[in-house]
Amino acid sequence: MKAKGGLGKGLEALIPQITENEGDVVIQTVRVSELSPNPYQPRREFDSDRLQELVESIREHGVLQPIVVRKRAVGFGYEIIAGERRFRAAQQVGLHELPAVVRNFSDRDAMEIALIENLQREDLNAIEIAEAYVRIMEHFSLTQEEMAVRVGQSRSHVANLIRLLSLPASLQESVSRGTLSMGHARALLGVDQAELQIQLAKRIESEGLSVRDVEQIVQENRNVPRETNKTDKRKEEREKRPAVLQEYESLFRDCLGTAVRIQQGKRKGKIEIEYYTMDDLERILAIVHAEHR
What we know:
Blueprint: H1 10-14, E1 27-31, E2 35-36, H2 48-61, E3 67-71, E4 78-82, H3 84-93, E5 97-102, H4 107-120, H5 126-140, H6 144-151, H7 155-163, H8 169-177, H9 182-188, H10 194-207, H11 211-220, H12 228-240, H13 243-256, E6 260-264, E7 269-273, H14 278-291
Helix pairs in contact: 2-3, 4-5, 5-7, 6-7, 7-13, 9-11
């Protein structure tokens, strides 16, 4: 398997080339009933059409490439590290056994392999990738910078993906389904109220707004407030505030993936961090904890 560029170590580094002649690698037959999916599988949905194509291929040619598994830490059987699509297709075909490479993998490797395998096939949507990043970061106390190195991406790329998780659940679902593009979703992050994000998303669909259109709308009226006097007041407040505080707010937003406001008094101030669900709050706490280890 040839790894695509920009994916860190890639599968070849995590799973050395598998051949029957390798001294430390043995291909054996395992019963399908003994297999369970990778608990760290980042993909929530499997494309039914592509899975059916694999079913037909296996029905005609059999399973040509072994799956990769590890023994369960507790109980009997194996966890799938790479090859869950083949496992699912084999179940549909009615196979009782599969060729498999059994190796010892740490939880960290199991997580990374599942993520990288899907990234190399471009099977994951942006929300699934973001959730996988956060899961790995939380589990192993990684910073965004360390996560970026693991997957061969820039820190800003990782941060921008994670920021998508601050969108309302309905908009995250739209990104997952592909009805809301990554570009549109990122533009909506400039609006710091969930209700207004949803309203603007409806306009994107009904009016066919481009990403540039949305960016202009957000720029012209960042919060799309309902009352003009609120607009004037907030605009006046922004103009009075030091530019450095606005810059700090922007840095916080990029790091935490949510709206952040800094209020400065004569001698002290406060920082307000928005969250929309308890999961979102836990995500922010994990980022803060990881960045300061």
